[in-house]
Design a protein that fits this description.
The chain is built from 17 helices and 15 strands. It is of the alpha+beta class. It is elongated, with a radius of gyration of 31 Å.
Length: 471
């Protein structure tokens, strides 16, 4: 067998969320040194109704589990059957999450070594795209199994491994399992058991040094993989960080956006020693078109058509008057100068040269059409300028008012709704009451160009769930 002691297990449940759903069936087959030593299965009373969809999928209904034992009544036997072996399951995070939650309900800590047979199938059969149970049943031409029942799914995995040993050899199967089971060499002062608790889910992690001084704060779509990459890196900066780190902690989030926004807030709040200054802390600039008649400023000698403004001066409701996002004044001026040269605009009218009487410096070189000396009507120059700037125009807020972007994580049953208005981030809600509070909140909007860019990227994505909060 692939490991000295391994137990292949599958669960049927009332749903997908360990914190609110319950186990309805457990099946396992244990092998010790390649020999099957235990085969066990039982229905479990979930103490809650089984949804009709789950009943139709698994064939397990409320009547079947009414007289079945509670999980607490089979927990001791289950522990004894799993003791000393690796827990193997298809998408093991799902089964491990349910078992861990059920054991926690009865005051028992449950943290076995685990092996994911989905990942094992991917290593053994990389030429195939799908590695779900249905795909394995079809690929290995398995018949006669009770599909979507716990023991049937376990037996499907056993057939797959039998075929893999026959087709690829015992050595290849064992090497793939050992690769998945390999524990990275951690620094001696790092608590390996705490690393083992890291979820393969989105969130934010925090590294602390002596006296709880924050060293580094990061975000991750997979907390376990990201933190392990820090702890096992050979890069000199990473090693130095790891050596100084005395402890770490993490905060789970409902998704990638939630992790990004939380990381940004915590970095600003704690200023970690190893963190580069966030771009949010740098001044960003934009060109603002003169309000009113853009064809000609009130006085050519004192006023230009465009004014350089930073984030503090931006009115979020007037974004259509803004053009471009720049990291510095110099970058903004260089960009505007290039637009002016390419479109033969007047540097005086735009504000790149001092005002006053007479033509601008570009007129004599045929790079300005002469609005500065009466050769071109100001209205025509204004239209040409607006056309040249159009590609750089900031987008107006496309909603009636406030919106929420909702994220939900099945594994930790965490729902977070991030509320925005006019591209401004107002806060996060985790329940209906806090969402209603943000919906009614009257806030002085302070425009943040980084949030604007983030929303421009996220809002068009099909996976982004937008809630209209304006009604």
């Amino acid at each position: 067998m692939i490991l000295p002691a391994v137990t292949f297990l599958d669960l049927e449940t009332t749903g997908a969320t360990p914190l609110k759903d319950r186990i309805t069936e457990i099946a396992l087959v244990r092998f010790d040194h390649g020999v099957e030593t235990v085969r066990w299965q039982t229905l479990v009373n979930p103490q809650q109704p089984i949804p009709p969809f789950i009943q139709s999928l698994t064939g397990i209904n409320d009547e079947m589990v009414a007289d079945a034992p509670l999980f607490s009544e089979v927990a001791e036997k289950l522990q004894s059957l799993l003791e000393g072996s690796v827990l193997a399951a298809h998408n093991v995070r799902f089964d491990h999450g349910f078992l861990k939650t059920e054991f926690k309900r009865i005051g028992v800590s449950f943290s076995p070594k685990v092996l994911c047979t989905v990942k094992l199938s991917r290593l053994l059969y990389p030429q195939f795209y799908s590695h779900g149970i249905d795909a394995i049943v079809e690929r290995h031409q398995i018949s006669g199994l009770a599909r979507h029942r716990a023991m049937g799914d376990v037996e499907a995995i056993l057939v797959m491994l039998h075929d893999a040993r026959r087709d690829l050899g015992d050595g290849a199967v064992e090497a793939a399992a050992q690769k998945l089971m390999a524990v990275p060499a951690l620094p001696p002062h790092v608590d390996a058991s705490l690393v083992g608790e890291l979820p393969e889910a989105p969130g934010v992690y925090l590294f602390y040094g002596d006296k709880d001084v924050p060293l580094y704060i990061g975000k991750a779509t997979n907390l376990r993989a990201r933190v392990l990459s820090h702890l096992t890196s050979e890069a000199s900066k990473e090693k130095r960080l790891t050596q100084e780190m005395k402890k770490f902690e993490w905060i789970p989030t409902a998704g990638e956006l939630s992790a990004l926004l939380l990381e940004s807030r915590l970095v600003r709040q704690h200023s970690p020693l190893y963190q580069r200054p966030s771009r949010r802390e740098q001044s960003l600039f934009s060109w603002q078109l003169a309000v009113g008649n853009p064809s000609r400023p009130a006085s050519l000698s004192t006023t230009s058509l465009l004014t350089l403004v930073n984030e503090d001066d931006i009115d979020p409701s007037q974004l259509r008057q803004l053009f471009g996002i720049f990291k510095s004044k110099r970058q903004a001026v260089e960009a505007l100068r290039k637009i002016t040269d390419m479109s033969h605009l007047c540097a005086k009218m735009i504000g790149l040269e001092p005002g006053g009487s007479g033509a601008c410096s570009a007129f004599a070189l045929n790079r300005c059409k002469g609005v500065c000396c009466g050769k071109e009507p100001p209205e025509i120059h204004a239209l040409r300028m607006q056309q040249a700037l159009m590609a750089h125009q900031l987008k107006a807020w496309p909603y009636r008012g406030k919106i929420g972007i909702e994220e939900y994580n099945l594994e930790n049953d965490l729902r977070q709704v991030h509320v925005f208005e006019h591209w401004v981030y107002l806060g996060v809600a985790t329940d209906d009451d806090s969402l209603q509070a943000l919906r009614e909140q009257k806030t002085l909007l302070h425009f943040d160009l980084e949030t604007y860019r983030l929303l421009l990227k996220m809002l068009p994505q099909k996976k982004t769930r937008v809630l209209d909060l304006a009604g």
